[in-house]
Amino acid sequence: MKKINVFALVAAVSLVFSSCSNEENTIDNNPSSLLKTYQLKRDATGAYSVDFEFAENTKIEKNVNTSNNYNEFLFSSSNFASKKNTSQNLSIKNNKLDISFIDGNIGKTYSVSVSDDNVDFQSKAIKSKLKSYSVESIDDVTFNLNFEVRKDVNVSFVYNEEIKTYEAHLKYGTGAKQTFTKTLEKLEGEPLKIVFVNYDRIINTNAKSLDAEGFLVTRKPEVIIN
User: Fold this and answer.
1) 197, 219 in Cβ contact below 8 A?
2) Which stretches does DSSP call E strand in the chain?
3) How far is Cα 59 from Cα 80, in angstroms, rounded to an integer?
4) Where are the alpha helices (DSSP H) in the chain?
5) What is the pLDDT along the chain (226 residues), one digit of tens a residue?
6) Sign (positive or negative) of CA dihedral 171, 173, 174, 178
7) Domain boundaries, the chain
8) Residues whose CB is less than 8 angstroms from the CB of residue 39 and which lie 6 or more positions away in sequence, other chains included
9) 44: helix, coil or strand?
10) Alpha-carbon gap, residue 201 to 172, rounded angstroms
């Protein structure tokens, strides 16, 4: 009878150690992400920035390739205490801005590409209909788009199935609202594409980008998230 109890005890202890070992392996094989959310912003002056929210004890390294305006942010674990959020100023150069966020803890890279006018050009474009905008990641597939237009601008927001792009169409008119918030879903394996489509009435021009109603159409800014 004693031998049976001993064997039962040994089996129970072995089971506990096996369970703990499996739990430890699960934790080791599934590290948590360091980067929690990010928010790309363009203010009323045309200046760009990005806000980060990340886990405690996170180190951020920034690398910039000035030749193609590529900005890389590497997030890695650190033994030193750190803030849980920060902001970085960015700039549009040659109408382009490329950003990558690399989460070293899970080996995942997020990338954002922006096409827009340079700040000096935007400051001269007094009639610009878009005042400011931001795109915030909620999780890997959900994003919030917030934007503000100037007074007397009509806004229609559609999803263009043909090119798989969310489009905010901006025309002068008698718009009742100036601020908008849209929740967007990123399809698996597909980039999330957002573009602001601007319509301007041009007189005496041979521009090839006129639509059927005689408007000059420009598709800026454009944001692509991978």
Assistant:
1) yes
2) 35-42, 48-54, 58-65, 70-77, 85-90, 96-103, 108-115, 130-137, 142-149, 153-160, 165-172, 179-185, 192-201, 215-225
3) 8
4) 2-29, 119-124
5) 444 454 554 444 444 444 444 444 333 345 799 999 999 999 999 999 999 999 999 999 999 998 999 999 999 999 987 889 999 999 999 999 999 999 999 999 999 999 999 887 655 555 689 999 999 999 999 999 999 999 999 999 999 999 999 999 999 998 889 999 999 999 999 999 999 999 987 765 555 566 656 789 999 999 999 9
6) positive
7) 1-30, 32-126, 128-226
8) 50, 51, 134, 135, 136, 137
9) coil
10) 9
Q: Which residue has the tokens 């043909």?
A: 162
Sheet with 179-185, side-by-side order of all strands:
85-90, 48-54, 35-42, 130-137, 142-149, 179-185
Task: State how far the alpha carbon of 82 is from the alpha carbons of 34, 36, 38, 55, 90, in Å.
Answer: 12, 14, 17, 9, 22
Record the tokens describing residue 25, joined without a space: 């392996």
